[in-house]
Structure formats: structure tokens, C-alpha cells
Design a protein that fits this description.
- By secondary structure, the chain is mainly beta.
- A five-stranded mixed sheet has the order 9-16-15-11-13, with no helix packed on it. Strands 17, 18, 19, 21 and 24 form a five-stranded antiparallel sheet that branches.
- The chain folds into three domains: about 5-95, Immunoglobulins (Immunoglobulin-like, Sandwich); about 100-200, Immunoglobulin-like (Sandwich), CATH 2.60.40; about 305-465, no CATH class.
- The protein is elongated and about 135 Å long.
- It has helices spanning about 205-230, 235-245, 275-280, 305-315; strands at about 5-15, 20-30, 35-40, 40-45, 50-55, 65-75, 90-95, 100-105, 105-110, 115-120, 130-135, 140-145, 150, 155-165, 175-185, 190-200, 320-325, 330, 335, 340, 350-360, 365-370, 385-390, 395, 410-415, 420-425, 435, 445-450, 455-465.
- Pfam families: ChW.
Amino acid sequence: MDPGGSTTVRLRLRNTGDVVDEYRFEAVGSLAPWTVVEPQLLRLYPGTTGSVDLTFAPPRTPDATAGPNAYAVRITPTEHPEATTVPEGNLTITPFTEVRAELVPPTVKGRFRGRPKLAVDNLGNTKVTASVSGSDNGDQLSYDIHPSNVQIEPGRAAFVKTTLKPQQIIWFGSKESRPYTLAVQRSGVTPLDVEGTYIQRGFLPRWLATFLGIFMALAITFVMLWIAYKPQVRSAATEKLEQAGISTLAPSPSLSPEAPKAPSSDAAAPSIPAADESKAAGGGGAGGGGSKKEETKAPEKTAATAVKKLAAQDPGGRHICYRAFVSGKGWTDAACDGQTAGTVGQETPLKAVNIAVSGTKGTTSRAYVPNPGSADDEGHYPDPFSNAADGIDNYVGSTKKDAPNLLGFSISVDGGAGNVCQNAHVHVDAWLGLQCDEPGAGYAFTYAGAHKNDSWIEAFQLTVA
């Protein structure tokens, strides 16, 4: 059967006993959530036969695994519960393919390059293999795509990093908009086109070019006037001497007097104070007891340090940087805009997370930790929300020695200034796939991580748009 539809199987039952009995029916196995048994209770006299209908309705989602799927029905007699039987069957679910792609962010800005990310989601129930290529009108951009080929399991997502480079640099003038298209191509299927925009900024603004032109013109004019105007300088002193009858000729040389004699060797030399003697002897000398320079510790490079650098390079853009406190290892280096923070597959849980943003009016976060003894075996939020403005570090979790593992964390950018997307890698699982809050919804949150007490988050990726 096709996912999203329904089909019915009839089960016949005969009472071979010698008493009237009631039989209860219960669907078991992986298809049980999508199976309805009608009726669930059947009363039969000895030697009579009855039937029940099993209706299967698997949804059109990646959970409906393509191929043969075993199912079973547990039949329990009321009078003889020890005679329970479980007949089995097989349901083959047909494969279907559904791929969705999204640019994060759809618009990037830069003078020399832009770095958008393409999120490709496999919403079907079979593995998808696809290649990614870029194009635009007039070949105004070049594309560096990594990886250019992806394989995506059902219900998972793949991130493709793209670097856009303009063929010509705008040295002076205003910014220009350059539309482009990234195509997700699969064998035998029409390519899925995702459109984006690269806004190329000028290297120098137009007003600066005008200012430099005027400045050069004034400088050339000043130099030409300086060369053309030569002031005549005359000495009035010579004229005054001539009027007074004084000769201006140089005096004739006279006999040189006897040269003075050098002092005798036994003449007393001038005394030098002790302090001056030490200076004359070697200017302080090596090992003279000079003070040592105090060693200064380099400041810690937090998420705010990294996001401020991005904000300086791209003042009008939106960026998010983050790092993870890994159990037994400490803080990782800061990662930004979709890079991975933490470890994957090393059984090392995270204890705390440090986040900072720019261009989003701040961020709000909250840690989710285990709650031992809970009725549903799920964690809880022990602390209130933590807020931080743009360029300020926001911390959730704890770095203490006995701090609990992070099951996950909630995050949102403030004031409806954008939206945040996350992808988390959870213990005894894989990457959970791209999840985003709703753009413009104010304090709508997205959650990264697991929920059960016996799991934890190992790594994560964050982007803002």
C-alpha cells in the first residue's frame, strides 16, 4: 500500500472449545500505532466462527518505512487467558520521495564573497542521493559548493556550504543585487531550484570617491601655485653697513697664538660620584636587579569575541556564535553560523553552552537537564530564562564539577528581529534535523536536544536569519 492511504485485512476466528468465550484483540508490532481493530471484543459460541477487520493507515512521513513490515494481533480468550495466540502478517509499504530545500539565509551581503547554507530535507521514506549546482543570469558569480553531492537518510537533513564570489569587484558606488539559483538535482527527476540573492557592496562608498577627487584637485592646485610664486629675499643688513661706511670684507688672517699645552699626566682628574661611576662602567649592566615584567594572561575568547569580529566585517548582517562546555574537556573554540560545536559519537555530554548574536536585538536561552524520579522519565527546566543583548555572552547550564548533563536547550532571538534554526546530535541517536522557530513570532522558541533522562546532547549547529 501507499503511505497516506489505508487498507483492510480480515481475520477469521473459530471457537473450538465447549464453552461460550469472549476474545480480545490488540494490534502489536511496529505498525500498531497505525492499526485499528474492529471490533476489539468478539463473543463466540462453541463451534462458531467470527471475524474482525484490521485497518492499516500509515502516514505519508519518513516513519512509514518502505518495504515489508511485519504486523501481529494478540488474541486473548477471557475464559482461557493462558491460550493467548498471536497470528502474524506482512504489509509492504511502497516507497515515496519528497525533498525540500531552503537557503539559510536567503539573502547574503558582502564585498568580496557571500556564504549562504543550503538545508536539504528528505521527507520521504527512502534514501535520497542528490547533487547541488549554482547558476545566475550573466555569469556574474562563481560558486564553491561543499559537498556538491549528498546522501540523505529518510527524515534527515543535509547542510551544503556555498561560497559566492563576484566576477567583478565594485570599487566605488552603491550596492548591487545579484539573484542566483541553487539547483538540487536527482536522477530522473526535475531539479529543485532554490532562489537566493547576493547583495554586493562597493569597496568604497560614492561620497568617498568624490571627496578624494576634490582633495587631489586642491592638492595639485596648491602645488602649482607654490611653484609659480617665488618670493624674492634680500638682506637689508648689508645695505645698512655700506651706508654706515663699514667694510663688509672679511678680516685679514692674523698670526696664530701659541697653542696651549696639554695637562701633565699627574694632574688630578675630576671626581665622579659613585652613582655616575656605575653608569659609566656599564650603564646598569646585565643582572643589575632590574624589575621583571609581570606576565599577563590573554583574555578568554568567548562567543561574544567571535561574533564581534563577524559584526565588524559585516555590520548589516545577522550572525550567531557559540561554544560548548564538554564533559572532561572544557570549553571548545567558538563556532559560528552553522558550524559544529561539541563532539560527535565520543560519548561526551555537554554541561553548558555559551551563545552570542549580532543584528538580532539579543537572544534568550534556557537549559533543560535531567529530572531523576520524574513520572514520565523526562527532564525539566531548573532555571529561568537567560537574556543577553547583541554582542554580549549568554550562558546556560553549569560548568561545576557535579553539574548535570545537558539534555538540550531552548533558544530564540529577541524582539521578532529574525529567526533561529538549530540541528542537534543526541546520544544514542544521530543528527535530529534542521528545526527553526517562526520568523517574526517574537519570543517563539526552538528546542535543540533530547527529552529523556538517560540521554544527552553531544553537539549542535545554530544559524540566524
